[in-house]
Amino acid sequence: MFLQKLRYARILVLPMENRINDMRKVARGLPQKSGVYLMKDRLGHVIYVGKAKNLRKRVGSYFQGSRKFIWAQPKIGAMVDMVREISHVETKNETEALLLEGKLIKEYKPRYNTDFTDDKQFLLVRVDLQNDLPKFRLCRNKKEDGAHYYGPFAQAGMLRSTLAEMRKKFGILLSDAKPVKLEDGRYRLYDDARAEIFAGHNQTSVEEYRERVEEACSFLEGRAKSWLAELREQMIKRAEAMDFEKAAELRDLADALTKTIGRTRRFTRNWPRAEENEQTNLVRLAEKLHLSGPPTSIECFDVSHVSGTFVVASMVRFRSGKPDKRAYRRFKVRAFEGNDDFRAMQEVVGRRYSRLHENGESFPELVVVDGGAGQVSAALKAFLVLDLEPPPLIGLAKREETIVFPDERRELKLDPRDPALRLLQRVRDEAHRFANQFNADLRSKKIRESILDDFPGLGKVRRAALRENFGSLERMRKASAEELAEVDGIGPKLAAKLHHFLETGKSS
User: Fold this and answer.
1) I need a surface site. Which of 13, 147, 241, 244 has the fewest CB within 10 A?
2) What is each CA distance from 78 to 20, 22, 75, 399, 486, in whole angstroms?
3) Are residues 414 and 320 in the same domain?
4) 164 in a domain, yes or no?
5) What is the tens place of the pLDDT at every residue in 156-201?
6) Is residue 462 part of a domain?
């Protein structure tokens, strides 16, 4: 539970010296535990909300004898001079204090919190439940994009630590994750050393992962229902004990939390249906692009490389507005080496549709390429070289989110909220993600292979056996010499040398 104890002290208007002394006494009476403190003026208005690892020490710093801390910061000095009341809420740990601080700042909008920190710089946690595997990301600006936002949170470092702990506790994905779909339909969330943090739950189904997301979202919401129940229980006990002033205080705090919950519920975690409004969006897209009808099948291409190396491309297919992942394709660019997005786009588009033509398969009703006029021209050239009639073809340029046509039509810029543009963005972003994932996989594989190449005595077969047994270089490095020796073709002597090499980077 967040809320364990709530203590309250009222300080009457006294001469400055006496008031500071009384405040100092109040601070000394606070627990040496983590929590949140609320400072109020003579009218009872909350003017500052802060969190503390040690409430006594933190609050006491405002009223210390020398007051050097105060005089060095005039705004804080002005605030301290206005303080007449202090209340606090104990929490189990600093993480829970952080979450409660964010909720109370949002509730009370304290004057001095706003003065000290630019609200635009507060961090938010973004979760997009439209994805099969939603990730928890940090951002600074809320958009009307259908995602859920939690916060704001004033303590950036603490929030990042909290998310890292949430990854361990709930088994959720953060922004750096690149989940991989397995043959049995489940997903491997992390493919590196972080795979071990879930205690055997790194592989999961979409349904099971969504349960984790539900738990994590409840955690970010501060478990307000539990607080509310406890507050009301304490309020009843105080009233029965004839402590009506304390009961009234608890009632007011419960009312405030009720309002906070009400605002949080704007982010209702109803998982969107895949088919929701998709047909309407497709009709809208057909109207904007002047197509003969809603494009039931859409294919999108993206090229990815690192300074002209590891040049790859992706093709994703959407059917009825939904990803058809079985139809996704990945391409290694073969015709050249170097940085030439246009040539790469022409090659992969040509390979894709020459194969469909040879197999007698139908073309999609819309082809989208990630890029502007150059990429669109390259894709069109691929059809012309093959002497094939191209389907409707467009490009979506990232910088301005502009739709580019292969003919004389002017570029089209839709309203950012237009459902037709939102649909195209989902398709484009999925192609981008798929291409980047393929690129990263190749780079990771190359790195693993190149490291093992530096060790004498390992041929292709032995390297393959090691990779099959351990899956990653990180796990191989953690293995003992005895575990390495259990791999086919790796004897005790070679295992000992390999273990030394993996630890030191030097062959013995």
Assistant:
1) 13
2) 13, 18, 5, 46, 70
3) yes
4) yes
5) 666 777 777 778 777 888 888 888 888 888 888 877 655 555 544 7
6) yes
Residue type, 371: G
Residue with tokens 């939102």: 422
Residues 284 and 419 reside in one and the same domain: yes
Q: Which amino acid is at 257?
A: L
Domains held by the chain: number: 4
The letter for the amino acid at 10 is R
pLDDT digits (tens, 9 = 90+) for 223-276: 545 545 666 777 788 777 777 777 776 676 556 445 434 443 334 445 554 444
Measured CA to CA, the distance from residue 173 to residue 190 in angstroms comes to: 8
- Residue 26 · residue 60 · CB < 8 Å: no
- Give the rounded percent of residues in the chain with a pLDDT score beyond 70: 75
Question: H-helix or E-strand containing 395?
Answer: strand 393-397
CA dist 219 and 3 (Å) reads 14
351 and 211 part of one domain: no
Residue 273 lies in a domain: no
Domain range for residue 399? 278-440
Residues 408 and 435 in one domain: yes
- Which amino acid is residue 464, in one-letter code? A
The DSSP symbol for 95 reads H
The three-class DSSP label of residue 30 is coil
Alpha helices for 454-478 (secondary structure H):
460-470, 473-478
Structure tokens at 168: 């361990």
Looking at 440, 469, 489, the residue that finishes a domain is 440
What CATH number corresponds to the domain at position 339?
A: 3.30.420.340
> CA nearest 390: which of 398, 402, 378, 382?
382
**Cβ 405 vs Cβ 271: under 8 Å:** no
- Write the CB contacts of 242 (distance below 8 Å, at least 6 apart in sequence): none
Domain edge (last residue) among 84, 116, 148: 116
46 sits in which H/E element: strand 46-52
DSSP 117: S
173-174 sheet: strands from edge to edge: 148-153, 123-127, 135-139, 173-174
Q: Tell me whether residue 336 is in a domain.
A: yes
With a CB cutoff of 8 Å and minimum separation 6, the contacts of 282 are 294, 295, 296, 320, 321, 423
Same domain (yes/no): 89, 178: no
3-state secondary structure (DSSP) of residue 83:
coil
If one compares 316 and 84, the residue with the highest pLDDT of the two is 316
CATH of the domain at 84: 3.40.1440.10
Q: What is the token pair recorded at 501?
A: 């090499």
